[in-house]
What does this fold into?
Amino acid sequence: GIDTLASKVGTSPRTLENIFQRHENCSPNHYYLKLRLERARRMVEDTQLPIAAIAQATGFGSQSYFSKRFREHYGVQPRQLRQMVLVGEADHR
It folds into this structure.
């Protein structure tokens, strides 16, 4: 949580939130979600792991919540992205 993170870096939760807002234009929680989604996208594109396994590996409690947040962030479902990558690879062979 934000309290633990702030304590580990030697600042207050409010100061940490202000720093993230100033430098990343988002909250620490939103930044962490963004990092998880970026990792998940790489896994969708670069592996054949099931979407449910990717959701779990990137810290999402359910595949449906993961897919919802992924679609909100990238405008496409994880399965659709994987299909686009596969079609694109097939075009280059």
Summary: The CA atoms of residues 41 and 62 lie 16 Å apart. The longest helix spans residues 28-46.
